[in-house]
Amino acid sequence: MWTGEKHLKTVNFCLIDVSNQPKERANFERFLPQKQNDVMAKFNLKINGKTRQVDVDPDTPMLWVLRDHLDLQGTKYGCGIAACGACTVHLNGMAMRSCVLPVSAAENQEITTIEGLSENGDHPVQKAWLEHDVAQCGYCQAGQIMSAAALLKNIPNPSDEDIEAYMSGNICRCGTYTRIKAAVKTAANS
Amino acid sequence: MSIIKTTYNRRSFLKVTTLSGGGMMLGFNWFANLVPVEKSGKAVDTKDWVDLNGFIKITGTGEVTIFSPNPEFGQNLMTSMPMIVAEELDVDWKSVLVEQARFNTAVYTRQFTGGSQSIRQGWQALRTAGASARHMLVQAAAQTWQVPAEEISTENGVLSHKTSGKSVTYGEMASAAAQIPVPKEIKLKDTKDFKIVGTPRKNVEGAKIVTGKPMFGMDYRREGMLIAMIAHPPAFGMKLKSCDATAAKAMPGIRDVFTFQVLKEDYVKEIFDTRTFNDLVAIVGNSTWEVMNAKKAMQIEWEPIADTKEMQNFWGGQKREVFIPGGLESSSAHVRKMAETAVTSAKTVRKDGDPEAAFKNAAKIIERTYSAPFLAHNCMEPMNCFAHVTAEKAELAAPVQAPEFVEKTLSARLGLPIDKIDIHLTRMGGGFGRRAYG
Known about the structure:
The complex is a heterodimer of chains A (190) and B (438).
Chain A: H1 4-17, H2 22-26, E1 41-47, E2 50-56, H3 62-69, E3 88-91, E4 94-97, H4 103-106, E5 110-112, H5 124-131, H6 141-154, H7 160-167, H8 177-189
Parallel strand pairs in A: 1-5
Antiparallel strand pairs in A: 1-2, 3-4, 3-5
Helix pairs in contact in A: 5-8, 6-8
Chain B: E1 3-5, E2 7-8, E3 11-12, E4 15-18, E5 23-28, E6 54-59, E7 64-68, H1 77-89, E8 96-100, H2 118-145, E9 152-155, E10 158-161, E11 166-169, H3 170-177, E12 185-187, H4 206-210, E13 227-231, E14 238-244, H5 246-249, E15 254-261, E16 279-285, H6 288-297, E17 299-304, E18 308-313, E19 319-324, H7 331-343, H8 355-360, E20 386-389, E21 394-398, H9 403-414, E22 421-425
Parallel strand pairs in B: 7-8, 21-22
Antiparallel strand pairs in B: 1-12, 2-3, 4-5, 5-6, 6-7, 9-10, 10-11, 13-16, 14-17, 15-16, 18-19, 20-21
Helix pairs in contact in B: 1-2, 2-3
């Protein structure tokens, strides 16, 4: 199932996805899937500090492994082409769009989802999100929070430009951008 | 301070009952039109519950829960509407719990979110409900303490009598309050005394959102459920020509592929029934990724539609013929149509002052044309729905703004009576009117 055309398409989306995150670009090659078959395979995954095993098509994006196979529905499906950011998770601490991250590329790496960002929902970004009452419908916010947490890990005191550049891949249809920016600053200062 | 009659349509707006285990439950209509009426009407009976769609529950332990009947898509009426109740009830907002009520046309009315109507329509009814519950708690305390009700004050869910120094929580007085007759008219607070309304309060579901709790339609899970995806035409104005599912059906995890009509041919559409695409293809399988792959493998041909006329029901029961032009709908066609319309003479709807003279006397006239493309009411959460349909009943969990309309359309499509259709309301990942359409 891993056709050449699809392969190229996925790479293209991923490059767009990380264009504002130069540190990730250098490491990008190692995330590309190595397997090119269509049989089911077992994968050992490290998710939120726990080891989980799934038996799926190696192409399956992490988003669907999380949502369909591991019952972790906090990571959201918006577009499926890395264009909206709703599915953002951390792969070894870096923000990645899980809808285009094949499970085969995520094996044995540290994956963090919104459910595992903090034990009690008290990560500085989550606290800042509540303080600024950022969410309206809330659907994109797990992705926004995961991106913001990764941003602050890379740049502890981001400028307005840093925030705009890093968060630009996360779309909010309700238009909560002003509060997102304010909350990122609050989290940076906490 | 305004005095509101608590009856409408000659029936009581409020109904009280004792909770099993202690406490009171006050039912009311979230959107009742509380115009004062002359006749007080008949005695309240249980059929009046039919008109109720909001509930205030005060348990013996003092827990205050307000059931919000309307679907939530981020405009935060699950927060703002209970705030109005809590204001008149005089409870500590931080202690109020809000729950999404189930969709049930047998019990609730107007479970619809849209048109920026929620606060405007709910304002008086919500205030009256809160004030009535408070009034009954005060009356219960007055009877218990044998003091005049006027001497009892309330604050943050506590009843106090200054002279005797007595005080009691709403929870402790709730069972006694449930025995007090529902007031026929009620005094509302002076707006200058508001402590909650007019102040910013945070989204009651904020903590669930930032920790990724499943709450949206997409998050709904049921043991044994399958995943289905719909193949749509690539543009408005197209319909299904042919469909070959051979390759897709042979793919791993695929259970079935079939074409279907969204609505029956002779069905007269209601105003919120979408008429965009009626012939669609469904791909059903075990998991989302398998279904997505099979959808890509489908060989489907679409063709432009021809000019069509159909009848549609509009507001107020009037029927209208709707003309649907043939061919693909496109932005360039919209622009062309706008340009054509712009040169035809317009109807004056409103005219203030003398614009002709103002233009004539202007030192400088700036003329510009601006255009914007078609803006879709796209939501971050893709359209989705859980459905379990049998010959006897249909059960749904759906992020929809207008479940009453969905239920009516489904009833006609499935040939099931309304009471055999059960819709569980989920939070919506955006609505914007898109989710008002079925």
